[in-house]
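so i finally got all the pieces together for this one. its three components total, 1182 residues if u count the protein bits. some of the lines might not be protein, just check the labels. i wanna see the whole assembly predicted at once instead of chain by chain like last time, that was a mess tbh
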Amino acid sequence: MTELSNRTKRPLLEVDHLHTSFHTFDGVVKAVNDVSFAMNTRETLGIVGESGSGKSVTALSIMRLLKSPPARIEKGRILFDSIDLLEISMSRMRDIRGNRISMIFQEPMTSLNPLFSVGNQMSEMFVRHQGLTRREAWNRSVEMLEKVQIPSPGKRAREFPHHMSGGMRQRVMIAMALACDPEILIADEPTTALDVTIQAQVVDLMMKLRKDYGAAILMITHDLGVIAEIARRVIVMYAGQVVEEADVISIFEEPRHPYTRSLLKSIPKLGDASTHGRKRLQEIKGIVPSLADLPAGCHFYPRCPHADPICRQGEIALEEPAVGHRVRCIRHAGL
Amino acid sequence: MFAFIIRRILQFIPTVIGISFIMFVLLNVLPGSAALMTGGKEILSPEIVKKLEKKWGLDKPFHVRYLNYMVGLAKGDLGTSFIRGDKVRDIIGNRLWPTLKLAVAALAIACFIGIPLGFYSAVKQGTWVDTVTMVGAVSGVSMPQFWSALLLMYLFSVVLRWLPTFGYGNGDLKNLILPAVTLGIGYMALLARTTRAAVVEVLSQDYIRTAHAKGLSVLFINGKHVFRNTMVLILTTIGMQFGSLMGETVVVETVFSWPGIGSLMVDSIFLRDTPVTQGCIMLIIFVFMSVNLSVDILYSVVDPRIRYD
Amino acid sequence: MKRMGLGLVVLALVLGFYSADALAVRNGGTFQWIAPYGISIDTLDPAATSDDKNILVILNIHRGLFGWDAKNSTYKLDLAESMTADDDGLTYVIKLKDAKFHNGRTITADDVIYSYNRLADPKKSFASSHLLVEIDGAQAYLDGKADHISGLEKIDDKTVRIKFRNPVDPGFQLWRYGTAIVPKEAAENEDFGSNPIGCGPFKLQKWTKGVEIVLVKNPEFYEPRKPYLDKLIYKIMADAAARDMAFQAGELDANLLYAAQYEKFKNDPKLSKHMMEVPEMFTRAVRFNPNFTLADGRKPFSDKRVRQAVNYAINRELIVEKYAKGKAYPARGFLAPTTPGFDPDCMSYEYNPEKAKQLMKEAGYAKGFDLTVIAGTSTAYGAGVVEAATPFLKEIGIKVTIDKMENAVLYQKYSDGEFDAAIASHSSGPDPISIMYRFHSNSPRFKQRGETSQKIDSFEQIIDLAAATRDPAMRLELVKIANDILTEEAVLWFYNYNKAVIAYQPWVHDMEPVGVEMMYQHMDNVWVDETSPRANQK
């Protein structure tokens, strides 16, 4: 498999002991707490977790899109093509954004500026990163709209976001993200806000485009169904930490962390609308602990069905019981 | 769009009729008499008062006077001033241009300083620049015009002798500066605060994050995406301010002896020179409605979501 | 026929004054002056207004048969060359000076007759028309019962005969600027108020409404050498603080001061050198309504002792000093110190709360009563003054409520007699007899609402006698007595006389304090020396 052979090379993106916190009046919220993972060229990596697990903050940290203050990246490195994204100047970062790493967001309804035409907003990418003239950029934008299967793209380009449906806008966002042929596409819950049938279409589109463009995709979602469909490797995050990492088959076949197991217990069949969304995550008893006041030891301890006093003693390390399968649970072997 | 403008202009008519009626009733029940005011400090004898009132048609019943006024208005005749004896149209006509000039200059100062200041402050949110600007803006709003006028006058006219203390001159720019700045300060502060609030709001929008994710420069994002989105709110403020500006120039006009509508209106109210008061109110209503209409039209230019069919 | 002595004396005085200064005066220059009352000048038609804000400009454009002599506080001959009285004491023959209107036409007797008939024209209802009522037949014309004033007669081109209905002093009737002589060819125009043509020392050059009025020298003015100034600009400036700034910046050649500035100027040794002050003929006073009735049916102000008690109870000197910041003269009675006939030794009320209480007790009001005083917005004679007086009145049991209102409302209520007590500024000059006549039961004002609590017979006898007396000195003696009677009767609470103050730049010469109204400045007397920044400005 390509992914396996690539692992021997230097990864495309390497997140190394990332700590990101928010300094608020209520104290320091450790949103991302020592997260490390790597991603190879053309790889599709999924990150799953509940709201507040730190997955979006991780993505925004990579893009350096967090507003500071209150956010602060305390420690760690983010290596992209041997460049530490946390060390370079903001203007160099802006050269990378949208060009080599691009990102799409959860809310297609609000992610486009309502006052400019879709074509105008797409053209900005080409003008900014490829130095095209406005006319050339416009033509390229129309081509991109065609690629994301928007009918009569020439006409659509002149339209404004409010003329379009949510699915259509998300296609526009995808088209925009892929405009400059990036090496990494970070997709932060790209389907969450969409209708179920549209979700499927968007996922299909992304899979197709991945093949055409060859971009590595960092898919962030709480939807295990999406993960199953698109990702090769999966990271499960809980309370700002990576709790389990494995290839997608291992995660679904032999999950090792109690949290992953709880998640999987409630997995629906793809397209089963009635149990979709956040509802099934609520089946895990208790709530996500406050990131400003984390319990000592295992952060999942208060909600874990296998909790044991030993779990509360000291930091829990990320172990690698099988090759490429990492887990943060001291009792995983005995479960 | 054209149909919309025509429709809106037609809507002016019932508004004018309604307001003129209310105005007429209010000015009618106001105690006091213009005739008595012509005497200055002397209390005129009842015979003279009666004669003057007859001359001005004040002896006729209310509905007759109202009808006469409305018929005149329809013909574009605003009547004749009781006390000055001149046509109201001429009296107001003389003062319209100075007032407009003052209001536009004040608004221009407010816009060219207030908007960038508010913008800068919002972008530098939470820094000392922001704090200083906003403290300045609050003091600007709360400083009485009378006071700021005298301070400016003292500094620039008495101490530095750069600018004339008062008057319209021959419409010279140097005469316009101090009154316009005085009037502009309050609106500048208001506009700075409105802009700041609007920019802070827009900055937190998802599409701004998208713009950053696209790798666009801060300058470009602020200049294009943020600015255009704050325009609607800023335009609303400007539109409303301009309307009220016309009626709020009285203090500045009095202090700087500026021959505008505001002081004319207040003066005519005190003198009970009703035709002049009515003319001023009509003019202000007209300006107000026109500005509102222009703002509405501008909305649709700025924001494609707003369409008038 | 007998020559009027007074007119000659005045003329001599005036001429003497001119010759004494003739060596020093300098011609030329521009004078920046102010129109401080209100935001606009409404009209320059002398007939159409009796408002001082217009008159202060009008009097430098227009002239009448008589004018005001500020120095001697009496009228003087102006367009009239001479005046001779017939033996009946009612008819006067007036000869005109050689004078021209601004349009170059010579003034004749026809112009006098035209101007007076125009002023009294019932169809025009001019605000100043009442100035003529003493001329025989003017009232009939005003009332529409005649088609002209019968008491005017042309003798020749330069001479008119005027007949009065009562034996009055013509000068006191006709010095007012509303009776100015205007040319028919201009005055018949609709826009005469905006494009006036007169015969005064200055003519209108440019009027920017609401901004300024520019007057230029009338080179054909009938008084030789005058006016000295080439140009006179009235800046319309209603705001006292702004005027002060402009004066300090040297943009104004003179300024009318308000109480706040008066203190500063008075205490500054440099500024106070170029300042003049005068008691104006305005008596600020509270008027008592005799019909004011208490719940038990008693009418306190119909009792002289109550009115006297009020006059004793209030420390007017203290209020003038503290509240008015010294910019007023405590009143000693109705007539002002500049009014002819004012007696420096007249009786007056001192501050004596014990006596006040005693009087209240005698009148049967030992417990006092509640009183509402209506007051306008003026700081000099409005609600603030009543507020300052309130604690003093409380001492004698009168509990005051102040009903503050806008001037237009106050005037209306005042005119309709709808008040228990009201504070206002009362004209108290310049003709003592006609101004005091308002307290006479025959006056229209008295008939309308009753100016005093009751008919004061002694006062009426004296004032009637004064009016009929033709010896000036004797007249003034009678005036003094009449004024003392009004004081003794306490017809008003006498508060103060306005102290009008003008500050002028060091280069300004020969401005005069004018008691009848400080802003009635005859600018033909004024000149500026070389040090004026506008000394050579045309």
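The first strand of chain C starts at residue 2 and ends at 3.
Residues 281-498 of chain C form a domain with the Dipeptide-binding Protein; domain 3 fold (CATH 3.10.105.10).
anyway lmk what u think
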